[in-house]
TrEMBL record:
It comes from [Ruminococcus] torques. Residues 1-32 are annotated as: Disordered. Residues 12-32 have a biased composition (Basic and acidic residues). It comes from the Bacteria. The chain crosses the membrane at residues 62-81, 122-141, 153-172, 178-198. Keywords: Membrane, Transmembrane, Transmembrane helix. This is DUF4398 domain-containing protein.
């Protein structure tokens, strides 16, 4: 009987220890779950705060960007030289069209035969179409290539060159008889070529 009672007590003690171990394990799991939930809440709170700060930064950047663009725009409005250059650039294809129309109207009188007139008219239209398509392709290819190398440096150079021409366009025109739009293009193309040269000459600087 004594042996059986000892065995029963040992079993009960083992059960109690097992229950205590299970209880402790449940408490630890609960503690871990609570800490995990707390960490998730902190992460969500930090994300919401970061999103709010990013949204504020974007809003401020949007405000200052548009403000800067407005300043450049009004500078262009006050810049008579730049307005003349833009108008001159717009008038170039218009004048070409006028000259072509005038030439086409005289084509009947400067051609010896009807076949020659048709050939000249068709050939001229074909060449003009090819020229327009070629220009469009060159512009598209240039834009695509520029997108590949576009970064903060080129953005800064573009904005700086436009600002430079917008503010000092009239002064530049007094000393440099060149279309101001070409000045902007030359500055940016020069920057691209200079950077390509430096990248080839000193590749370790761009690693």
């Amino acid at each position: 009987m004594q042996v059986n009672q000892s065995s029963v007590e040992a079993v009960e003690q083992a059960k109690k220890k097992q229950e205590e171990a299970e209880k402790q394990a449940r408490q630890e799991e609960y503690q871990i779950e609570r800490e995990k939930n707390r960490a998730d809440m902190e992460i969500q709170r930090a994300r919401r705060k970061a999103k709010s700060e990013i949204a504020d930064m974007k809003e401020n950047q949007f405000f200052w960007d548009w403000g800067y663009l407005c300043v450049i725009f009004f500078s262009f409005l006050q810049n008579g030289a730049f307005q003349q250059d833009v108008l001159q650039l717009i008038m170039i294809p218009i004048n070409w069209c006028k000259e072509y129309i005038a030439w086409f109207e005289r084509l009947e009188y400067i051609s010896d035969t009807a076949g020659e007139m048709l050939f000249k008219g068709f050939f001229s239209m074909l060449m003009i179409t090819a020229g327009i398509l070629g220009c469009v392709f060159l512009v598209w290819a240039g834009v695509e290539q520029y997108k590949k190398i576009w970064d903060d440096l080129y953005k800064m150079v573009l904005i700086s060159s436009i600002s430079f021409v917008a503010v000092l366009g009239n002064l530049i025109r007094e000393y440099l008889p060149l279309n101001l739009i070409l000045v902007i293009l030359f500055i940016n193309i020069g920057t691209i070529l200079l950077r390509a040269y430096l990248k080839k000459k000193y590749p370790q600087m761009y690693d």
